[in-house]
Structure formats: structure tokens, C-alpha cells
Amino acid sequence: MTSRSQAAPAGYRATWAEVDLDRIASNFAALRALAGREAAVFPVVKANAYGHGAMPVARRLASEGAVGLCVATPEEGLELRRGGINLPLLCLGAVDPLQIAAAARSQIVLSLYSPHQLKLFDEAGRSSGIPVRFHLKIETGMNRLGILPEELGPLLDELRGCRSALLSGLFSNLASADRPGEASNAEQGARLTEAAAAVRAAGHDPRPMHLANSADSSITPRCDSMRYGRGCCSTGSGPEPETRVRASRPRSR
Ligand SMILES: Cc1ncc(COP(=O)(O)O)c(C=O)c1O
User: Residues enclosing ligand 1, CB less than 6 A?
Assistant: First the structure.
């Protein structure tokens, strides 16, 4: 067990969560086994590792052999760096222009999900002298953040002139991961594969390429990397029994 809340403020009931890091480690091992030898697993430790404690969870996952971690914001990545986490970090969510250089300085890989960001990344990389690495997020059907198919060609053309913004991976997000049989999953996979071909044709390596989250690791295409969040930390997030081991218990006096 790792964490217990501080004393409750006056007037509040003493309520805390007991977190079992051994369970997080065993969830991670189970998810790695499901992902198979060919896919790297990047645990998602966003939102304070889903409330389980970003630092203790990240440290434990690092000691269990995680090859990298995902966060939602640059702030979360910076917190991990301050705590001594040296693993590759990918920020999946939005980045403010003022955060770009600081993130790159701390070797946090950013997501590029809108065409206007390329210029910002390149400028930040040029003026700080530290190239800004990014994974390109493709809009394949989630209808949230991502580069639209018609935006990809012009973006790859623009990338040719950028020396300080470096494409370092490719990904997308499933809209119906919790319904593995859904046709839209395969359609999203096909769109990501098409984008990978365009990226390759433009002279870039689209790997690591990632699509699946905890809900299902069998989604095709089987990418070379997987992003697992709730499956590592908590419960009920996947069809596979291995991903349903609860890592925390609420407690109240
Ligand atoms: C882009 C992206 N990938 C993966 C995850 C992890 O999802 P899950 O917790 O369902 O595994 C998240 C979580 O928000 C996400 O935003």
C-alpha cells in the first residue's frame, strides 16, 4: 500500500484511498502480455495517474520496465521530471504556445493535432535551440483533436521546411474502443494506416505508431505501441479479465 491522505481539514470526514502499487504492477504486466512482444506499452499516468498518485505510480512503472509514459498536459510531464522520472514522456493533450520550449527542454514529446502548431513548434525549437519533437495525431473518427486527412499533405509539405520541429511518431484515438467488434474501429485503423503511408512517402518514420487504449488491445492494425491508462491503474476498463484488477480502495472513518 502506498498512499493515505493527510489529516482531513476541520469539518470533513476522514476519507482516503489505499493504493496498491503491486496491483498496478501486475495490471501492467498483464497488459504487456496482451500487447505481445512486438508492441511497446506506454502507460498513461494522466490526472495524477487517475487519482492514484502520479509520482509513486510512475516510479513503480519505471521499475517494472515501462519504456515510456503518457501524460495529458505539459505540466504533468514537468512534474514527473521534477520527481526524477527519466523515461520518454509523451504529452497527449493540448499545449499552450508558451509551454512548448519548456516541454522540449525537459524532453517531453508533444502532440501535434492542429496544422497551425507546426509553425509554433518550429519557431520555439529554433529560438530555444532545442528541437521540438512531436507525435502527429491523426483525426480518424473520434472527432476531437487531430489532423484531418485533407490537412495531412499540406502539413507534410510544410514540415519539409522545418528544421526544429521533428516528427517522432504517429497516433490516433478510438471512438468506440470499448466495443471491439464495431466497424468504426477497423475504419479508424485503416485511416491511420493510410496516414502512416503518407508520412513514410514524405520521408519520415511513422513509428512509434499507436491507437489502442485499455479497452481493447486487439484492435487492428496492431501498432508497435499501445497507450494503456485505466487498465494499469483501475478497474472495469477492458474486456480482458487481466485489466479489471482494482488498484485502489476508498476508505472512510
Ligand atoms: C489519447 C489517449 N490515449 C489513451 C488514453 C488512455 O485511455 P484508457 O484510460 O481508456 O486506457 C487516453 C486517456 O484519456 C487518451 O486521451
Answer: 44, 46, 92, 173, 213-215, 227-231, 237
Q: State the distance from the centre of ligand 1 to the C-alpha of 148, rounded, in angstroms.
A: 20
For the chain, domains (ranges, CATH) are: 19-252 (3.20.20.10)
* Dist. CA 95–CA 92, nearest whole Å: 9
Confidence (pLDDT) at 151 = 98
Please return the burial class of 82, using the count of CB atoms within 10 Å of its CB with bins 0-12, 13-18 and 19+.
Answer: exposed
Using alpha carbons only, give the angle 75, 117, 93 rounded to the nearest 5 degrees: 35
pLDDT tens for 177-196 read: 888 788 999 999 999 999 99
Tell me: pLDDT of 2 over 70.
no
The CA 240 to ligand 1 mean position distance, Å, reads 17
pLDDT, tens digit (0-9, with 9 covering 90-100), for 132-141: 999 999 999 9
Per the structure block, which three cell numbers stand in for 192? 491511420
Q: In angstroms, what is the span from residue 230 Cα to ligand 1's centroid?
A: 8
